[in-house]
Structure formats: C-alpha cells, structure tokens
Specification:
By secondary structure, the chain is mostly helical. Helices cover 66% and strands 0% of the residues. Helix 4 runs parallel beside helix 6, helix 8 runs antiparallel to helix 13 and helix 25 packs antiparallel against helix 26.
Length: 635
Amino acid sequence: MVLAVIAFHNALPTEFVLDGVNLVRDNPRLHETTAWADLWQSNYWGGFSNAGLWRPLTMAVWRMEYGTLGFGDDPRGYVVVNLLLHLGVILMLWLTARRLGLGQWASFTAAAWFAVHPVVTEIVPNIVGGADLLVALALLLGFWAYRRYVQSGRPGWLLLLGGIWLAGLWSKENAVILPVLLLAADLVLNVADWRAAPRRMLQRRALPFMVLAVVGATWLGWRWTVLHALGEPFTAAVNNPLVLETAGVRMLTAVKLMGLYLGQAFWPVSLCADYSFRTVDLVKAPADTSLLAAAAGLLTVAVLAGWAQRRRPVVTLGLIFFGVAIFPLSNFFVPVGIIRADRFLYIPLLGLMLAVAAGGEWCLERLPRRAAVVRWLVLALPLLGMLWLTIGRNPDWHNARRLWRHTVMAAPDNVKARHNLALQRLPAPGDPAPAEDLLVVARHLEHAVRVSRELPGDEFFEPWVNLGNVYLRLAALEMPDSRMNAAGTQRLEQAVAILEEGVARSQHRGRRYASWQSALTARAEQLGELRPEFGDAKLHLALASALDALGRPVEAGRQLRRAMAVEPANPSPYLRLALLYARAGQRKDVEILVGIAVRLPIASAEDRLLLNRLMTLLQQWPSMPGAPGSTNPGE
C-alpha cells in the first residue's frame, strides 16, 4: 500500500478530463438540488448517449463526493478517493492470495505488482475509473464471502454475498462475471472433492447460487424498468468501428484484442487514453499476422492453465479470472462502447497477478534455499520498472491538453485525439490568435479530416465544423482591414469547401441513423431525439459565416434556415439571419426574427451582443443603409 502511495504521489490533476467533465463536473444530477432517488431512476449518462448503461451506485458515490465531501469542481478530491479505493483493492488482493494458500512472498508480489502496474494510471487519475474500482472490490469481497459461507454454512454470509454482488452490479455492468468466477474457483480448487462426492458438493453450493440468481434477476428487472432495454442500443462507429462490421470481422478482431491486452499486461511500456478510429487495425482475414500472434499467445496461456491445474491450481484460477474478465470487453459477441481501452485491463489484472505470483512461487521453490537473493531480484526488478513507468505516466492526466498530446504521440492517426488536441490549442473566439497558432491547429484538424474520410458511416463531422471555423479566423487575419483580398478570398473558399463536405456527411449520417432507428424498436423514441444532440446546426452556421464573408448573402441565408430546421430552439441562426435582413433593409423580417430569438434561451455572449446590436438598429432604422426591395437572404 505504501508502494501505491509512492507510485501515485504525482497523480493529482489540475482539471477534469475525458468523461469526468460530463459525468462529474457538469452533471446536474450530482448537485444537492437533485433527489438521491433520481440516481436509481435514470441511465448513466442522463441523456441518450450510452443509454444502455445503468450505474446508480457509482453516481451516488460521485454525488457524495461532490456535495457531502465538498469536492465540487476540484478534481483532486475525486482522485484521492480513487486512490483510497485502489488501496482497498490491493489489501483484498493480498488477503485473497493468502486465503488461496500462497506464501508471504507470493502474496506480497501479487499485491505489490498490481499496486504499481502502469495500467492503474488509467483508473486512479481518471476520475470515472471509480466505477472499475468499486467492481474490483465487489468481486474480491464477493469471493471472500462465498468462501466463508462454504466453510461455515452460516446464512449471514449468503446475505452479505448477495448484497456485495448487487452493489457491484449497481457500480458497473462487468460485475456480472462474479458467479462465473465463483464456479470456476470451486471447480479448480476442489477437483478431488467434486470427483469424490459431487452430490454433497452440489448441495452445499446450490443455495448461494440460488441467492445470486435472485439478485441477478432483481437487477435485470430493475434495469429494464429504468432503461426499457438490457443492452446498449447505440455505439458510435468513431469509438468502435466494429459496430458496422460483420460478425466474422468482429470475432477475429476480438481475438486480436484479447492478445493485445495480454501482451500489454506483461509489457505496459506504452499506454493510450483513447483507442477510437483509427487506432486499432481490424482483422478481416484469418491469415492476418497480428491475429495469428494473438491466437498463439492465448493458446499458450490456455495450455499453461491446463498444465498448472494439478501442480499449482491458483495459477489456473488466476488465468481463468483473466479470461473471464476480459472476454466480455473484447467485442466478441456484442460491440462495447469503445473498441479498446487500457482501463479495461484493471480487473483482469487481478487474476493475472495471482497467476504470475503463484507460478513464480512454484518455480522458486525448486531453487536452493541459499538462492534467496534470486527471489527478491525477481520481485524488485519488475517492481522498479513498473514504478518508474507509472510515475512518468501520471502527469499526462493532469489536464486535457497534455493527455491528448500524449495520445497523438501514441496513436498519430487517432481522429478524436487529433481533433481534441486541436481544440485544446485553439484560442478562444475573443482571444488574440496568431496565425502561426491557428496554422498548427489547422494541421491537426486537416489530419483528422483526412483520416475521418475513411470512417465507415460518416458520423464524426466535428473536424469539418472546427476546421471551417479555423479557416474563417485565418481569413480574418489575412484581411485585417475588412476588405477582400486574394489571400483572404482563397481562405474563405477553403472554408466553404470543407464545410459543404461536412454538411453532406452529416446528412448521410442522418439517413443511416434513421435506418438504425427502425431496427431498434425498443428504443425508437429515444433514437428519435438523437440527431439534434449531434449539433448539425454548427455546420450550417459556420458555412453561413463563410458565405456571408464572400458576399453571398442568399446562400448564407439558406444555410441559416437549415440551421433553424435542425435546432429550432437555438437563437443564433435567427439572430444572424435577422442581421442579413437588416442589411437588406427588410425591417419586418428583422422584427419577426428578433421576436422569435428573444423568446429563446440565449446562452452565448456572442448572441447577446448580436441581439443588442439588432435592437439598437431597429431603434435607429431610418438611418440604416439599404431599402425595401433589396435582395432577400435565403429566399
């Protein structure tokens, strides 16, 4: 535990990153005005996205941290709680190793290596990693309660087992593997007893599995009443391109992914916070070399598990634990939210550390006693290496810009990483923006656009929006006196071209989602609310700005009307179209549009300034340029 504190002494962040922004910092359900019971009556994300996830206990813990403990918008407190939970997992892993019969050296090795393993940096500094920490605790505590019931037969341990599993299921869905782990442990550790007296063994174990069945059915029923579905109805292809592939490609890629997870557990020298498109190459042929290498590694592990069953059963149990925990996350049967994530390895690593420590103990027992120094070298060298990697990785989680920069270094073709790093480097609209900085941002966005064109389904159009806006800002710098020149005109034409491509892609995406809607009848109503959340209006607004700057008000007005159709409650297109009408001298239309806009919630400072400008223009109308009968924008 001391080693874990040393490993994560530099993990405290300066800002929220990744899902911690939406799930914790900006989540209204964590505020004191929200009833605690509401957390058990809504999905994990609160809106449509990932609506097939239900984790009320995780939300309740964050709610307690946000309000009761007073962490609020300070991310450091959440990371401290994550570290405390990790310490609890380490303690339970050590106790489990001792209960399974491992010696002091092997138990300490399993706990110490797990405590400082670099993969843990994807959990402890990552605020939303708290869900995985709660599940890991539930699995180890559930195993402990089950073993105590089998030994004593006291019903209190049964109630504790059921409560622990329900808490795990409320924390994250992968806690569902607990019954499989308990059954595997019974079969592996008590082979002789099962062969000698199978009926007696069944009688003693029937009741706990009946309790688990009742708990599981209760959880599924409650989950159905909240979500009206058992699984996740929507996964974005930009996060997991396997959703658009055949079952054969998905299964072959899943084998490769399990091999990659296994390799990373033993050689964690390179970690990545995001594995969305295009980071993992899909396997589309059985002769793929990466697939063959992964299959060879997995087969070796399976053979080792079978060989160790009689010699050191804990090795077999640990390897089964690893396989059972990683298999549901491999996309073999059902695509998960992201094709791959280093954080998925946290729970499977528990089993792998048990197996490695038990196997190491078996090997070292065959050395002469005077070779005790070898025992400590075997422990210390990997420990020091992992400690060094972990301490070096922690600062990448301090802020979003550093995290995305490291992700781009690890995966140069990752479209989300390129796009998000560009946004982190993009100066705010009101801040001075040197052309050199904007050109660096444009290069990242151009790379994201180039790779995104290969994305099946055309759903990730945000790089087109932001690249078009960067081109607009560059055009403003290239026309400092507000007069058209060759450089500014060329940049504006670039903006128009890239934004028109983005509009075309977003419309194609809308048709594809409509086809998904008809296939997912259980979530038809929720899917009907999907498109506005993706912000198609941003494309039309940006394109309108570019067309207006090029002196094409009719086309700009057409784009603003399309933005209204996509987001009728957004005041920005009404105000900007009103400005076009004001320039054309159409007072009546200006009054109508301003009247609509003032009834809508105006959140941005830019829109408020534009509204004030239009109100002033209406008051000074006789002195305005233009006259009735001028060109009518958008008509």
